[in-house]
Amino acid sequence: MINIFPGLPLIESPLFPALKAEWGLSAEEERIANDLHEKGFAVFDFPDADLNDRIERIQGHLGPRYGIDFADPHSDKTAGERRIQDAWKFDEDVRAIAANQAVIDLLSKLYGRKAFPFQTLNFPVGTQQDGHSDSVHFSSLPERFMCGVWLAMEDVGPDAGPLFYYPGSHKWPIMTNSLIGRRGYGSDLASAQDPYAPAWQALCDVYGVKEERFLPRKGQALIWCANLLHGGSRQIDPTLTRWSQVTHYYFGDCIYYTPAFSDEALGKLDMRRPVSIANGQAQDSRYLGDVVNKTLPRKKYHVNFRRKIKSIIINCNK
Ligand SMILES: O=C(O)CCC(=O)C(=O)O
Ligand SMILES: [Fe+2]
Q: Fewer CB within 10 Å, N- or C-terminus of the chain?
């Protein structure tokens, strides 16, 4: 069967039921694909025989950087730094988790383009972050070719500020500046998420969905789709830890950019040049195979556009 919509991840395509029959999925892969398609997230056991040793080494190596007294069971674990971004650059175990080949192969199969990890976040406690979709921070053209993989590095109970999400919210309108009537290019924000909070709240109210919490055991992981609304719930017991690693993935042959600081309709994109954690190489943005690392400067765009219009008029008059 020809995929008429290569601009959509396979798991998010309206043709998903017909397409998946041809992928040769195992029963476990099919369960994950179905969950992503219907709910926007899927849980799986992280495929790494050395995971327990890696977790222990990561906690030992990164622990002192958070400024938290982990040795004292009664200390406030939320008092220090909440996260370390891109520890893969100096910690081989963080890198190995992010670049896990089985996960890359699985995501590539489910999305229909080659996945590559480009960012890691390591948390010793919950983030207590409001509901958001990651696609305002990092998105792609065509859209939806991005996902997060959240790995539990210990068992997580309800008092430790577990991850939460709204099942099915990946099907809601994708949050962009044009959707909320805001100009983004050149804007300056302390938190890129802030302008969208009332809009996400309005969608939650109108769809009347109930949040679900992820209470995993150590070694379980959760994939979330680019547009799934998720966050970190309030940490009820501050003496608890909630060690976790999030890896964000992009997919090949896409334009990579930050929507919060872009105005897509005006061709003003805050482009990204993500480095693949798998091979250390910066990845070019591409559109239908062609490299497009820079937005066309505004002036040039106008000249080209005028030339094109002129040639259309001349040709029409011939
Ligand atoms: O772990 C959490 O509490 C949320 C993390 C998150 O939203 C992210 O890394 O994108
Ligand atoms: Fe997030």
A: C
